[in-house]
Specification:
Helix content is 38%, strand content 27%. It is built from 11 helices and 13 strands. Strands 1, 2, 3, 4, 5, 6, 7, 8, 9, 10, 11, 12 and 13 form a 13-stranded mixed β-sheet that branches. Strand 11, helix 9 and strand 12 form a beta-alpha-beta unit. It is globular, with a radius of gyration of 22 Å. It comes from Nitrosospira multiformis. InterPro entries: Acyl_CoA_acyltransferase, BioF2-like_GNAT_dom. One of its GO terms (molecular function) is transferase activity.
């Protein structure tokens, strides 16, 4: 058996069922579902560097990866900013690391290094205890999740005092001002257009608009989120949660759910209500709501841990990682040597300026 390399945009539709079958056999992670993956490929359609689909066609040990060339002899998983984890799938019986090493020799041109990016230690085919010299494990970020154990009161009493006091104070102030604070859950495919329109309005009211990264109602990001939500809502696996002040949305969170796991993809709030911290109020309401649903067991943030947000909500932290596979140990040494030379030269130039 050998690896097949094809243009992903053209090939993925015909392999879509095989991709989903392989995902289902290895944990059925919703972020690796084709309903999430294919819209990412569509969003990347106009990019100069094409995404490639690498397929190991074996009845007993199939494997599939989405790749992009990142330099001379350098390759990495296709990793758009909207995807928190690496898009790679291996049969449970396969030796994933050996298969990746084989893939290096099948890539177009000379494959020197292949980066397997953004691996969740709870959902990965690669073991960090692997110490072979042509493999390099690199810390990526710490990410957090909320384990929905016991009940909400137990969870809430275990959170920082300032979070509980501040949210209570904000609610009392809203009540004095005659503002009704309510959680709204949108779950129907037909509600997603309006939901993304509201979300976009909120992001465009704040710093993300000023930095040029805000989701637009009709831009590629907005189109992507609307598309995946419509697809997942058809299966009861998508939701937009909105916090309403007197019936008007002031904060919004985009989520997808499967197997008792809720993944928070995006959160935004209307900056004109900044003093009321609607994002914090919304998060509390969502967690309270999830505790009432006995099918839910955890909420994933899949983002960099921060003191001012993640650690307010959870103490459950783990470290994601990348792993680089080099053609051999000599290539690894050579690449690191070149990087050190370039780093020194850059430092010298900065010192001269």
């Amino acid at each position: 058996m050998s690896w097949s390399i094809e243009n992903a945009l053209d090939a993925f539709p015909k392999y879509r069922q095989q991709w989903d079958d392989l995902n289902a056999a290895t944990g059925d992670h919703i972020l690796l579902d084709s309903r999430f993956v294919h819209p990412l490929l569509e969003k990347d359609r106009s990019a100069k560097q094409p995404v490639l689909l690498a397929t190991f066609k074996s009845m007993s040990e199939p494997a599939m990866l989405l790749l992009k060339k990142t330099g001379i002899g350098s390759w990495s998983l296709f990793q758009p900013s909207q995807q928190p984890i690496g898009m790679v799938l291996f049969s449970p019986s396969a030796n994933a690391s050996e298969k990746v090493e084989d893939l290096l020799y099948s890539l177009p041109g000379l494959g020197l290094v292949l980066g397997i990016t953004q691996q969740d230690p709870d959902h990965t085919f690669f073991q960090q205890r692997d110490t072979r010299s042509n493999r390099e494990f690199i810390r990526y970020i710490q990410t957090g999740r909320i384990m929905l154990t016991k009940d909400f009161e137990y969870y809430w009493n275990d959170r920082p005092q300032d979070l509980r006091d501040n949210n209570a104070r904000r609610r009392r102030k809203l009540e004095r001002q005659g503002v009704e604070c309510k959680l709204e859950e949108l779950r129907l495919p037909g509600q997603m257009t309006e939901g993304i329109r509201n979300y976009s309005r909120m992001e465009q009211s704040g710093w993300k608009f000023r930095s040029g990264t805000a989701v637009g109602d009709q831009d590629p990001q907005g189109t992507f989120y609307r598309k995946i939500l419509e697809l997942f809502c058809e299966r009861g696996e998508g939701a937009i949660y909105q916090l309403l002040f007197n019936g008007n949305p002031v904060a919004s969170q985009i989520c997808i759910t499967r197997g008792g796991m809720v993944i928070s993809l995006k959160i935004a709030y209307d900056e004109q209500f900044r003093s009321a911290a609607p994002g914090f109020l919304l998060q509390e309401e969502i967690i309270r709501h999830l505790y009432k649903n006995s099918d839910m067991r955890l909420m994933e943030f899949y983002g960099r841990v921060t003191e001012g947000w993640t650690k307010k909500w959870t103490d459950e932290i783990r470290t994601m990682f990348h792993v680089n596979f080099y053609r051999n140990v000599q290539v690894r040494s050579g690449i690191h040597f070149l990087k050190s030379i370039l780093t020194r030269k850059k430092g010298t130039l900065l010192g001269e300026s």
